[in-house]
Write a structure and sequence with these properties.
The complex is a heterodimer. In chain A, a hairpin with a 6-residue loop joins strand 16 and strand 17 (388-390). In chain A, the strands form six sheets. A nine-stranded mixed sheet of chain A has the order 7-6-5-8-1-11-14-4-15, with helices on both faces. Chain A has a two-stranded antiparallel sheet with strand order 2-3. By secondary structure, chain A is an alpha/beta fold. Chain A has helices at 3-22, 33-39, 92-96, 114-123, 137-145, 208-218, 227-244, 258-264, 268-281, 305-329, 395-405, 432-435, and strands at residues 47-53, 77-79, 86-88, 101-107, 155-158, 178-182, 193-194, 286-290, 293-294, 297-298, 336-342, 345-346, 358-359, 363-368, 376-378, 380-381, 388-390, 413-416, 419-422. The N and C termini of chain A lie far apart (55 Å). Chain B starts with a helix and ends with a strand. In chain B, helix 18 packs across helix 19 and helix 22 runs antiparallel to helix 23 (494-506). Chain B has 26 helices and four strands. Chain B is mostly helical. In chain B, strands 1-2 form a two-stranded antiparallel sheet. In chain B, strands 3-4 form a two-stranded antiparallel sheet. Classes of the chains: A alpha/beta, B mainly alpha. At the A-B interface, helix 1, helix 6 and helix 7 of A face helix 12, helix 20, helix 24, helix 25 and helix 26 of B.
């Protein structure tokens, strides 16, 4: 192939795509792969949205209230859409979605430090030594469920927390998260979620085809027998497609109705949940949205627990509930598992600053959608909340359940070189009541 | 505008060595380090605690196969030995790379950036022995740029070893810069490698040794895991919680090593005051472990007596089978791309045959006084270092050199050199000091492979190289010094412009085929303005080509 021809070949094909992208035509893009496959009667592959509550939310003020006990504090419980199940008054909208939710109240883990607990809950493995190359859950899902030759990455992390290098580990860069952050900390603009450096240098997309052609000519200078050269080409091709399609238009949140955007909440987390749905719609198998702070609150409620958690729940409640409802309305809930969790819970005993401290012994998480059977509570804590009295669930059991929830066999292994590494640490068993 | 062009041309032609000022060493600190190194020599010569008493001269006997000339001041004898020992192991070496490729490798590996156009010109004017001469310039400071190269070599080695000590993925407490600057001092004085390592082992307080103890978390167990990984090439941290499933590490091994630091328990951020401190022992989950050398069954006698000095003596001894072997394996990996034994942190998984070359090499390094500059020169002057990348190999066992991924700092420093970015000492708005360098290094640092042969960048890294600020400015005629110097110079025709861009960015001439297709590309531009702009596009492609980040 002469290089001259390659210029023309690239130009023609890419100009069409670029024209579509820059005319704002992407919104009308006829194929949103997930919907398209549903329309064709095929069962779409599953995806997962992880709502990551960095800091460790209090179970007593969210999913496992203890009214009437001294440890419960002033938090009241309210009825949900499922008779007999009550949750905290801080989550009235979530309560209405209870038919799709499975709450686990018997989490029992062993890590009470933010960093170590985050590593445990993200990778399913307890931290050893100073570093890890175990992949996080999102990378595992991307590795198993990413559609081949898809322009978007398999794992997107929205408003990411300080990751301390937790990522794809030995699964490699194809499955490391694409980080999406708000461009500003100004509360009025921070819902403006974007990918850094997605806009073409120089601003004019008409140069893309030329660049692509020049680049592929210069690739001939690096031997394609080298793995690094192959990876370089693959990453650049993916990045180029992201630029050309402006992320398949997923980031154009303006296409959504004002009512729906309001319902999610005009916070970075709320709009992040909406973006997560749009990414899943376009074929991204794993999206993570982090909520670590809100005006007047964090989850790490060592001080003034009740007010700070209430502030967090105001952001959380509408976003989480709307996400489940929106997915259901679009017929996507069966194929999209929504996980709500942090790295640990909070001490039932209230400390001297009206706060609650780190507590890994008995805490709660919640799953919905995918293969998860909703409308139930699994496990139980004692009246004072101090211990699990029924069906303790360890981190690896939750991991196995989440894997089954998106249709991945939790008994499988990943290959690290030629050594098999089980997806989940030893002795894990998925919770039958949740995933059949 | 004229002035800008002049500056640009001056950078391009005038032979300025692009570099930064490095903070002057902290004298007082260096002195205290020397003192503590002296303390490490406390054991009597001859028998080293923890090793079977050996016949005198065992180590020397093993290397009698080649002369160790004290006259080998520039690593020649070592490189000859490497060449023949390598042929013994792998057969005939692959064809040698061309001169410019060699220069690109040497500059990146030794001074941390690509050569400037003027440096390339000087190199080409050297005689037959230009490769050896270049190495002598870059390592031993021969020639007119002595100060700059000595400084840059120390920085470059310090950066590489900082990353060995604090691999990507480590959660550090505090800034790694303290450690890097400590290493820089050590390498700029060419302190013997065993001595540098002894400083890290014997620390009196957690701030010693560049603060390494604090950086890795200020706990005995973290430090034990790191020391064994870095200095002995074994990972024993899995034995922290349970006995290791694949090798024979036991919890006693791990905690026995941690026990040497038992008195440094409660020193870090978020220290756990409930842990007791003691010299030479440590208690973990109810069991008390006494200081013990690895591979030994028995614990230390009188463990409270200067435990760390004894550890340092044992660990860095010539009789320690892993210390020197691990060191040369690391240097080989940093320079050639793949360790002589590739799994550099699991040396205990290597079989005897795989260890043979490494052990002999290590013994040689030890016998020559752990001289780092000579070791580096010996490797860089060898045929194996110079082997053409990805040369077809006859069998799986034969030697093959892969492309080498350049580090985040090398990416920026090379851009700084290639693009003639404003240099800090001249211009306070230089990107190095305005955060642009940090931003780029951090973003690239999020995705670093496990070895120099492993390209691990993802989409965010690619997007930054494609559309980020440095690139945008580099390809714009308004802001790019390189581009303007090249495009607006009256001395250049279009072919010369293209050649200069290739030389500045990729350290090579374009091939005839490349020249032809770029001429065709330019001919499609109908206006003088779009033709000028097209050079920006060519530069964009050079900066984003695999060749820029993957050294041939």
């Amino acid at each position: 192939m002469s290089i001259k021809h390659s210029f023309e070949r690239f130009s023609r094909r890419d100009l069409v795509r670029i024209a579509a992208a820059s005319a704002g035509g992407v919104c009308c893009s006829p194929w949103l792969p997930r919907l398209a496959s549903a329309a064709q009667g095929k069962r779409p592959p599953k995806s997962c949205i992880l709502l990551w509550m960095s800091g460790g939310p209090s179970q007593m003020e969210t999913l496992d209230p203890k009214p009437g006990h001294r440890n419960g504090g002033p938090t009241k419980s309210i009825a949900t859409a499922v008779p007999g199940i009550e949750i905290s008054e801080n989550l009235p909208e979530v309560a209405k979605q209870m038919k799709d939710l499975a709450i686990i109240r018997s989490m029992k883990t062993r890590e009470g430090d933010h960093g170590r607990a985050t590593q445990l809950m993200m990778t399913g493995y307890r931290p050893m030594g100073g570093m890890t190359d175990n992949p996080v859950f999102g990378s595992m899902v991307s590795h198993r469920l990413k559609m081949e030759d898809h322009p978007l990455p398999g794992y997107v992390s929205i408003a990411p927390f300080q990751r301390n290098q937790l990522g794809a580990g030995f699964l490699g860069p194809d499955h490391s998260p694409l980080l999406v952050s708000g461009v500003s900390s100004d509360p009025n603009t921070r819902a403006n979620l974007t990918i850094e450096n997605l806009a073409v240098a120089g601003g004019d997309t008409s140069v893309l085809a030329e660049r692509q052609a020049l680049l592929s000519m210069m690739r001939q200078g690096a031997p394609s027998t080298s793995n690094s050269a192959v990876k370089h080409a693959s990453v650049y091709n993916q990045a180029m497609r992201m630029i050309e399609s402006r992320g398949e238009g997923a980031f154009d949140l303006d296409e959504e109705s004002v009512e729906l955007r309001d319902a999610y909440g005009r916070s970075r987390f709320g709009q992040g949940c909406l973006l997560a749905r749009r990414l899943v719609e376009r074929g991204v198998p794993f999206v993570e949205v982090t909520l670590d702070q809100a005006p007047g609150g964090t989850w790490d409620s060592h001080v003034d627990n009740f007010n700070t958690v209430r502030s967090m729940c105001e952001v959380l409640d509408s976003a989480w509930a709307t996400l489940i409802r929106d997915l259901r309305d679009r017929g996507m809930l069966e194929s999209t598992m929504v996980v709500w969790m942090g790295e640990f819970g909070r001490t039932p005993r209230i400390n001297g600053s009206s706060g609650r401290d780190h507590f890994p012994d008995a805490w709660s998480v919640a799953l919905a959608g995918g293969a998860i059977a909703g409308g139930q509570v699994y496990g139980k804590t004692s009246r004072d909340g101090m211990e699990v009295t029924d069906h303790p669930v360890h981190a690896q059991d939750l991991f196995a359940t989440m894997l089954e929830g998106v249709g991945i066999n939790s008994a499988d292994s990943n290959m690290k070189g030629d050594r098999p590494i089980p997806l989940v640490d030893e002795d894990a068993s998925p919770i039958k009541e949740l995933v059949g | 505008m004229d002035k800008c062009i002049r500056i640009g041309l001056a950078f391009l032609i005038g032979g300025v060595v692009g570099s930064v000022e490095i903070p002057s060493p902290l004298r007082a600190k260096a002195q205290s380090i020397e003192q503590s190194a002296g303390a490490a020599q406390g054991e009597p010569e001859g028998k080293v605690e923890g090793f079977e008493a050996k016949e005198a001269g065992t180590a020397a006997a093993a290397i009698e196969s080649g002369p160790i000339a004290s006259s080998d001041s520039r690593g020649e004898a070592l490189s000859d030995w490497i060449d023949s020992r390598g042929e013994n192991a792998w057969g005939t070496p692959p064809e040698s790379c061309d001169d410019l490729t060699f220069a690109r490798r040497a500059y990146l590996d030794l001074v941390g950036r690509v050569p400037s156009v003027s440096e390339i010109r000087d190199y080409r004017e050297l005689g037959e022995n230009r490769r050896e001469q270049l190495v002598d310039e870059l390592i031993f400071g021969e020639g007119p740029r002595r100060d700059a190269y000595i400084r840059l070599l120390a920085s470059s080695l310090a950066r590489q070893w900082r990353q060995v000590l604090l691999p990507p993925g480590t959660t550090t407490i505090g800034t790694p810069e303290t450690l890097e600057s400590w290493l820089r001092d050590a390498f700029s004085q060419n302190r013997p490698f065993d001595e540098i390592m002894r400083d890290l082992i014997t620390l009196q307080s957690p701030q010693d040794g560049g603060g390494y103890y604090q950086l890795v978390g200020a706990t005995p167990e973290n430090y034990a895991g790191n020391l064994s990984r870095v200095m002995l090439g074994v990972r024993i941290d899995c034995a922290q919680c349970h006995d290791h499933p694949f090798t024979d590490w036991k919890q006693e091994d791990f905690w026995g090593l941690a026990a040497f630091y038992g008195d440094l328990q409660n020193v870090g951020v978020g220290a756990d005051a409930s842990r007791s401190t003691s010299r030479g022992t440590i208690t973990h989950e109810g069991t008390t472990y006494t200081a013990k050398f690895l591979w030994e069954d028995d614990t230390l006698d009188a463990p409270a007596r200067t435990p760390r000095v004894r550890l340092a003596t044992w660990l860095t001894s010539k009789d320690n089978p892993n210390f020197a072997a691990t060191a040369v394996n690391r240097f080989w990996q940093l320079l050639v791309g793949r360790g002589l034994y590739a799994d550099v942190e699991n040396l205990d998984l290597a079989d005897e045959q795989e260890r043979a070359f490494l052990d002999e090499f290590g013994q040689r390094f030890a016998a020559e006084g752990f001289d780092v500059h000579r070791l580096v020169a010996g490797i860089v002057k060898s045929d194996w270092y110079a082997a053409q990348a990805m040369a077809p190999s006859e069998s799986l066992d034969s030697f093959q050199r892969d492309l080498k991924v350049i580090s985040p700092e090398q990416v920026f420093d090379s851009l700084e050199q290639s693009l003639h970015l404003p240099i800090s000492r001249i211009d306070p708005t230089a990107p190095r000091w305005t955060g642009v360098r940090d931003q780029m290094v951090n973003r690239l640092g999020e995705a670093i492979g496990a070895s120099p042969e492993d390209y691990a960048s993802g989409i965010p890294q690619a997007l930054m190289m494609m559309n980020g600020r440095v690139t945008s400015e580099a390809i714009s005629l308004e802001s790019s010094r390189l581009l303007r110097a090249v495009v607006e110079s009256p001395f250049f025709d279009e072919t010369a412009r293209i050649e200069t861009l290739y030389l500045a960015v990729l350290t090579r001439q374009p091939s005839d085929e490349e020249k032809e297709s770029l001429a065709e590309y330019l001919d499609k531009k109908s206006t003088p303005e779009s033709r000028r702009k097209a050079f920006g596009e060519i530069l964009w492609a050079l900066l984003n080509s695999p060749e820029f980040v993957l050294c041939r």
